[in-house]
Design goal:
Helices cover 47% and strands 13% of the residues. It is of the alpha/beta class. It has 2 domains: 2-206 and 327-350, Aldolase class I (TIM Barrel, Alpha-Beta Barrel); 219-307, no CATH class. Strand 1, helix 2 (29-37) and strand 2 form a beta-alpha-beta unit.
């Protein structure tokens, strides 16, 4: 087991080099705490929470486990500084980002004594983040669920490892689900793996059981990457909802997206003026068109419809391509134990001992 204790374990203070990603509406206190207590690193999905909900969620995770965990923010959240200050005050060891944080945000996190780990989807992004002093990066390949790039993990991960030159730990994400994948990631030079869909399909996940069964029925060919949800490429399970979104015209798509933006504002407690300011910031930083900007709230609201409200007939099912090889709902503890046992077995096959 010594060979499986990597720099990620040392950097994050965890037993196993496995991270549960901050999935909006999914990675709540129960799943996050279960992952950390079992030896991995759980990351609390805070983007879809109000500030007060975030305070309560951090408090609940700490009540459930004394092990390290992280919180996931978005770089363009209008109250990001306040959220970082909360993480510092409550002693959350790590802040992760779905994209690239600003230099100021990284400095603020470091000033508070916390670690910063962004997700990257291209070599040049990893180079930039390493130059700005982040503590680790998560390299997500095209197989991943939710918003994703076009480069497969098998190509992206070695590129990112080369780009950072060993300066910081790299975690592979996109398609990982078992111990063999963990060993493959280590062979590519990574220090561990991050998984989303595999943790979504556990007993501690609060996704409705009926929706979990839909995930378990999916094959590896049942996901699709579409831009019809919010204008950015997103991997989801193909459903009649996705087909309707792809065939809809802008005339019908934009009013629905505007309703989603207003709903998201109410759920997260964001004042209208802050929503407008955040939208303008997103448009500048992400080079969005006005139509893409209006559509930006579609993804979280359509995700909530399925993964919180249990209404997949009106929502979407974000999923990594690995969903097609997942057939059961283990506990988080059983999942991590199995992955580590499989990884040890894989290493023994590759490097058999004497005799």
């Amino acid at each position: 087991m010594t060979s499986l204790r990597t720099r990620a374990c040392e950097r994050f203070g965890i037993r196993f080099p496995i991270v549960q990603t901050g999935m909006g509406w999914v990675s709540g206190p129960r799943l996050t705490a279960a992952t950390s207590a079992a030896g991995g690193l759980g990351i609390l999905a805070a983007v879809t929470m109000t500030f007060e909900q975030l305070e309560d969620a951090v408090r609940e995770v700490k009540a459930r486990t004394s092990s390290p965990f992280g919180v996931n923010f978005r770089a363009d959240q209008p109250d990001l500084a306040r959220r970082i200050d909360l993480a510092v005050r409550r002693g959350v060891p790590l802040v992760s980002f779905a994209g690239a944080p600003t230099r100021d945000a990284i400095e603020r996190i470091h000033d508070g004594g916390l670690l910063c780990m962004p997700t990257v989807g291209a070599r040049r992004h990893a180079e930039k983040m390493a130059e700005w002093g982040v503590d680790a990066v998560m390299a997500q390949g095209a197989e991943g669920g939710g918003h994703t790039g076009v480069v497969p993990t098998s190509l992206l991960l070695p590129q990112v490892v080369e780009a950072v030159g060993g300066a910081i730990p790299v975690l592979g994400a996109g398609g990982f689900h078992d111990g063999r994948g963990l060993v493959a990631a280590l062979a590519w030079g990574a220090d561990g793996v991050a998984m989303g869909t595999r943790f979504l399909l556990t007993q501690e996940s609060t996704v409705p059981e009926g929706v979990k069964r839909l995930y378990l029925q999916a094959a590896v060919t049942d996901t699709v990457v579409t831009r019809s949800i919010d204008g950015a490429p997103q991997r989801v399970i193909r459903t009649p909802v996705v087909d309707r979104l792809e065939s809809a015209s802008p005339v019908t798509r934009l009013p629905r997206a505007l309703r989603s933006a207003l709903q998201f504002r109410r759920l997260t407690g964001t004042p209208l003026r802050e929503l407008v300011r955040e939208g303008l910031s997103m448009r500048r930083s992400q080079d969005l068109t006005w139509s893409q900007l209006v559509m930006a709230a579609n993804a979280p609201m359509l995700t909530k419809a399925s993964l919180v409200d249990g209404r997949p007939e009106v929502g979407i099912l974000p999923a990594g391509q690995g969903v097609g090889v997942m057939a059961e709902l283990p506990t988080v503890e059983a999942l991590l134990s199995r992955i580590m046992a499989e990884a040890t077995e894989a290493l023994a096959r590759l490097c058999p001992g004497p005799g």
